[in-house]
Amino acid sequence: MIALIARELKLSLRHGADTVAALLFFVIAGTLFAFAVGPSPTVLAGIAAGVVWVCALLAALLPLDRLFGADFEDGTLDLLLLSGLPAYEIALAKAAVHWLTSGLPLLLITAPLAVMLRLPEAKLALLLLSLAPGTMILSLLGTLSAAVSLGARRAAVLMPLITLPLVIPALIFGTAVVTSDHPAAPLYMLGAILLAALPLAPLGAGAALRAAAE
Amino acid sequence: MNENVLSRAVPAKTSGWLHYFANPGRFLRFVQPILPWAAGVSLILTLAGLVWGYQFAPADWEQGDAARIMYVHVPAAWVAMSGYAMLAVCSLFSIVWRHPLADIAAEEIGPIGAGFTFVCLVSGSLWGKPMWGAYWVWDARLTSVLVLFFLYLGHIALIRAFDNKTHGYRAAAILALAGAINLPIIVYSVQWWNTLHQGNTISLAGGAKIYMTMLYPLLISTLGFYLSFLTMVCARVAAAVCERKTASALLAAAERG
User: Fold this and answer.
1) Model confidence, pTM
2) Taking an 8 Å Cβ-Cβ cutoff, which residues of chain A contact chain B?
3) Residue A149 belongs to what domain range?
4) ipTM
5) Which of A7, B99, B139, B229 has its CB surrounded by the most CB atoms within 10 Å?
């Protein structure tokens, strides 16, 4: 499994443009909100956390359709499934790589975007604290829907339709961490969702991979 | 390529009523004679419940005649939720036992369940206009039903997006189960979000005490809604089975030349 993660990381390093494109999308979409609602600091500060969360959600969706797509087309996926590695471990490795190549960079670039959106400085740590488990949840559920829509027609269009309703709880608790006066409770809920998704999402994704390879 | 799956009977070894009715041919023989009767009874029940509710039941003391939309709204909401539960159960059957009939049922429940969910949303927003003063209020229950509608739509789009039908059934079943696990979390989180972001909206929870004169038409129209849901699902499944039998018969005829 470690070898698989290393291979995927090397592949995504060679295709670094994909990661950069997702990051650029994240920043540009965030600034669009500033243009849309106007430069008023109070208005921006009110919506900053939500805007960052929604943009992170959409940016994490971008690389999903290539997550299994290339391996599915050239037969690598069949070989991986035949290698003796359980299907859920393949899915978990893919989710880990998705987080390392899209979730982690998003976290790094969140701070400048949040400052530009006039998020109060005291809240910045909370935003990062909520996005850390949040992006992991996105990677896990995104891997599930990428596996489920593998081989479908118009998979890229389908993916947001099936992923976004599933991540609504994460979005609600994630923004609540920043906006509510008691950030601990929604943070625990976010952690609980992560702990539930950690075993379940790869399990479902693995079953979907097996169905795709049949 | 999967049509011949249907003509293959379930092995005789696997006994039990569950596997007994999983045979599509047996299902057809059992359901087709009942269908017209079920359709008639569900139509009569629904009409009776609605006419009673709209014409003869008393108006609500607080909401007046507007509350009469309850006789459509509440049964539609119940059927919408039960429909998703049924979808999840069918998906479980299709993953665990690979019943061809459960696959077809999962495919056919989607549009009908989504239809009832849509009726619930529209009637709810029409009810909201005189009561809340707006067509849409981010009320916790209304929002949960909206998310349920999205889950239905995702399942409908996914199950029909595959060239390989069997693959589509597996994938959509996994999605439906993921949605079923997620649905309670969504409902709970929406309630949390609702209390966090806005004050009390008018809650209907206080109206749990309901007069018998209003309860009976509500129960009758609920019965009618449930029965019509089941009738429509069974009719669609029967039609799909017939469709596949025709296709495989035509294919066999073409092979013989």
Assistant:
1) 0.87
2) 144-145, 148-155, 158, 161-162, 164-166, 168-169, 172-173, 176, 179-180, 186, 189, 193, 200-201, 204, 207-208, 211-212, 214
3) 2-213
4) 0.88
5) B229
